[in-house]
Automatic annotation (TrEMBL):
Organism: Thalassobaculum litoreum DSM 18839
Name of the protein in question: ABC-2 type transport system ATP-binding protein
Family under the similarity heading: Belongs to the ABC transporter superfamily.
Molecular function (Gene Ontology), one example: ATP binding
Signal peptide region: none
UniProt-listed InterPro entries: AAA+_ATPase, ABC_transporter-like_ATP-bd, ABC_transporter-like_CS, ABC_transporter_ATP-binding, P-loop_NTPase
Organism lineage: Bacteria, Pseudomonadati, Pseudomonadota, Alphaproteobacteria, Rhodospirillales
Domain ABC transporter per the UniProt entry, residue ranges: 5-234
Pfam families recorded: ABC_tran
Length: 256
């Protein structure tokens, strides 16, 4: 089966900064994959290129079987994204924004789809509010509604639960699990929440300074680094510690 995403030798330079440096990976259809890395590792730049929003310096991206630079209009209507860094137009209400996006994506019953999402994502009480006057957590939920408005087959999520309280964050994760189970959609998500990654993702790509420095399923990485949590694996990889279990202190040693 054709992978939902195929990324080959993707590179993006901003002047002398190589934000993404010769990155290659593929995401099987229906999989959920995490893109992890510390601040400035290149996650947002990668996602922007995967959306066709940013032109690569070199390399190629195929999304749902189409080249994203040459053939983006064949595929963009089957993709969507959410990002805390992209604001909806502030003066329009949440409802107006969602209708505009639904119509831009050619959703046949735009009003019906927005009402359905408002109900499912518990944002009905926000529909008449200006998008610029929402709290950070409310914006995150509205961004998710926008990301799902066209029933995307390929969903790119940049920190989908940023700013959400633990209860709402848990609820959004459950919703994403249901969406995937119902639709078979493929998801690539950048996250700083390691519990979220363990829960949602089949595999993990670890970026450091624009390069993929390790990858595998959460279970494989936990075993490889001899750790109990992805938080510890993340710290090992981000701090360039080698993938081997730490020795237990001998019983007569006093821990420092
Ligand atoms: N438009 C730009 N012009 C110049 N440099 C940029 C630009 N966008 C990103 N960078 C640089 O590219 C590198 C990667 O940034 P990017 O935003 O992709 O990181 P990130 O992994 O998403 O980080 P964070 O977790 O902090 O969101 C950083 O060094 C950043 O300063």
């Amino acid at each position: 089966m054709t992978p939902a995403l195929e990324v080959r030798n993707l590179t993006k330079s901003f002047g002398t900064v190589r934000a993404v440096d010769d990155v290659s990976f593929s995401v099987p259809s229906g999989a959920t994959v995490a893109l992890l890395g510390g601040n400035g590792a290149g996650k947002t730049t990668t996602i922007s290129m995967l959306l066709g929003l940013l032109l690569p310096t070199s390399g190629a991206v195929r999304a749902l079987g189409h080249d994203l630079v040459r053939d983006r209009y064949a595929v963009l209507h089957r993709m969507n994204f959410s990002s805390p860094y992209v604001e909806l137009p502030h003066r329009l209400t949440v409802g107006q924004n969602l209708i505009v996006y639904a119509e831009l994506y050619g959703v046949s019953d735009a009003k019906g789809r927005v009402a359905e999402l408002a109900d499912r994502l518990h944002i009905a009480d926000l529909l008449d509010r200006p998008a610029g006057k929402l709290s950070a957590g409310q914006k995150t939920r509205v961004a998710l509604a926008k990301a799902l408005v066209n029933h995307p087959d390929l969903l790119l999520l940049d920190e989908p639960t940023a700013s959400l309280d633990p209860d709402t964050g848990d609820w959004v994760r459950r919703y994403l699990e249901e969406y995937r189970a119902d639709t078979g959609a493929t998801m690539l998500l950048a996250s700083h929440n390691m519990a979220e990654v363990e829960r949602l993702c089949d595999s993990v790509l670890m970026l450091r300074a624009g390069k993929i420095v390790d990858q595998g399923s959460p279970a494989e990485l936990l075993a490889k680094y001899g750790r109990r949590t992805m938080e510890d694996v993340f710290l090992d990889i981000a701090r360039d510690r080698r993938a081997e279990p730490e020795a237990e202190p001998a019983s007569d040693e006093v821990p420092a």
